[in-house]
UniProtKB/TrEMBL annotation:
Gene3D superfamilies in the cross-refs: P-loop containing nucleotide triphosphate hydrolases (3.40.50.300)
Residue ranges of coiled coil: none
MF-aspect GO terms: ATP binding
Protein name stated in the entry: ABC transporter ATP-binding protein
Residue ranges of every copy of the ABC transporter domain listed in the record: 3-233
SUPFAM superfamilies (alphabetical): P-loop containing nucleoside triphosphate hydrolases
PROSITE patterns named among the record's database cross-references: ABC_TRANSPORTER_1, ABC_TRANSPORTER_2
Length: 301
């Protein structure tokens, strides 16, 4: 098994109207892991805890085997590139190259050539003050800054927010290239299904501050299906179907049934004489919707 770059153990953060956790999570080295969840589910809060920008009420986080918040973390932070969800306002009056010059002092591995190459590819106008940049250009600049010291770990909070389609493709390509070496790690929060599908090896679903599971992406997309089933005259005990999630009438004696264990469910149907007339893979957003619904029912019960 590959080493873990991030280990989150029993992390809890209590706020007036929101509780994050307790969260247990392990992020493996050498892969892109995407955190997917609705607005306000706690994705940015989790990033901030990982970077010691906020303190948990309980639990602990380790990055590269070192406990976050336990002392001088300069070396640890030098191995990380972070793109926050919101650009930092206090830097608005700086020009791009002033910020880069400032940041480069913190990172012994700062690579000027790489920085300039990223700016060229993203078409960032470095003569502008940061506060004068459009939202998308600022985002591209932040990405270039986060990647220019060749970090071992990239933490990206909704990296494509504000990017036009061309910049989006450049970003996807830049992340693919960054991962080519094989030992680097990305943890990103994203709402963009296409982005998650193209980049992620693993997906973490987070809803209402709780992690609902971490899945290998390809296995996940192979296992969630809608089956269209003709029940004929008889009733079917849906709950006995492996991975059963929901069943809704679909006209006449037809039902649309969602399972998260497609292979086993299909075998079960064959063995039980249940006739599948059609099947369809679920997209990531449909899977998330089904998980959110289940979480709502769990909270209500
Ligand atoms: N500084 C803060 N003080 C109190 N509550 C906060 C603070 N920051 C965030 N919250 C609350 O914590 C919850 C989680 O917010 P967070 O920004 O982590 O979610 P998110 O999943 O990143 O959302 P989005 O997808 O909208 O970016 C929300 O209910 C939010 O209102």
């Amino acid at each position: 098994m590959e080493p873990m770059v991030i280990e989150v153990r029993g992390v809890l953060q209590k706020r007036k109207h929101f509780q994050l956790g307790p969260i247990d999570l392990q992020i493996p080295q050498g892969y892109v892991t995407a955190i997917v969840g609705p607005n306000g589910s706690g994705k940015s809060s989790l990033f901030r805890l990982m970077l010691d920008l906020a303190k948990p009420d309980a639990g602990e986080i380790e990055l590269f085997g070192e406990r976050v918040g336990s002392g001088d973390d300069t070396m640890m932070k030098q191995r990380i590139g972070y793109v926050p969800e919101q650009a930092i306002d206090v830097e608005d009056s700086l020009r791009a190259d002033q910020k880069a010059a400032f940041i480069s002092q913190w990172y012994p591995s700062w690579d000027l050539n790489r920085y300039q190459e990223l700016l060229r590819r993203f078409e960032v106008d470095t003569s502008l003050k940061l506060g004068r940049m459009s939202k998308g250009m600022r985002r591209k600049f932040d990405l270039a800054i986060a990647m220019a010291h060749n970090p071992d770990l990239l933490l990206l909070d909704e990296p494509s927010s504000g990017l036009d389609p061309i910049a989006w493709k450049t970003m996807i390509d830049a992340i693919h290239r960054y991962m080519e070496r094989g030992d680097r790690t990305v943890l990103m929060a994203s709402h963009i299904i296409d982005e998650v599908k193209r980049l992620a090896d693993y997906i973490v679903f987070i809803v209402h501050g709780r992690v609902l599971g971490m899945y290998e992406k390809d296995a996940l997309l192979e296992s969630w299906y809608s089956f269209y089933i003709d029940t004929g005259e008889g009733a079917v005990n849906w709950k006995a179907m492996p991975g059963y999630r929901s069943a809704e009438p679909n006209g006449g004696s037809m039902y649309k049934v969602i399972t998260s264990e497609a292979l086993e469910a299909e075998r079960w149907c064959t063995a039980s004489g249940v006739h599948i007339t059609g099947k369809q893979k679920l997209e990531l957003d449909d899977i998330l919707t089904a998980l959110i619904e289940q979480e709502r029912l769990r909270i209500r019960s």
